[in-house]
Design goal:
Radius of gyration: 24 Å
Shape: elongated
Helix content: over 70%
Largest sheet: none
Number of helices: 1
Structural class: mainly alpha
Length: about 60
């Protein structure tokens, strides 16, 4: 294997890893946005029903 072929292989691997990193980043951002949109949707549904107590109630675990 020549030096040029080795460099091309290294560049290809680097590009593949960069593509994988971008795909993972976009997946994480997409999941975060889906969760936030779902939360806003639940709050809007509650408010459109005319309810005034739409805050989430935190229940402490039983002792």
């Amino acid at each position: 294997m020549t030096e040029q072929e080795r460099q091309e292989d290294d560049d290809r691997i680097t590009a593949s890893l960069a593509g994988l990193a971008v795909a993972l980043f976009l997946t994480v951002v997409g999941l975060y946005l889906m969760e936030k949109l779902a939360t806003v949707s639940r709050l809007e549904d509650c408010l459109l029903q005319g309810r005034m107590n739409c805050e989430r109630i935190e229940i402490s675990p039983l002792r």
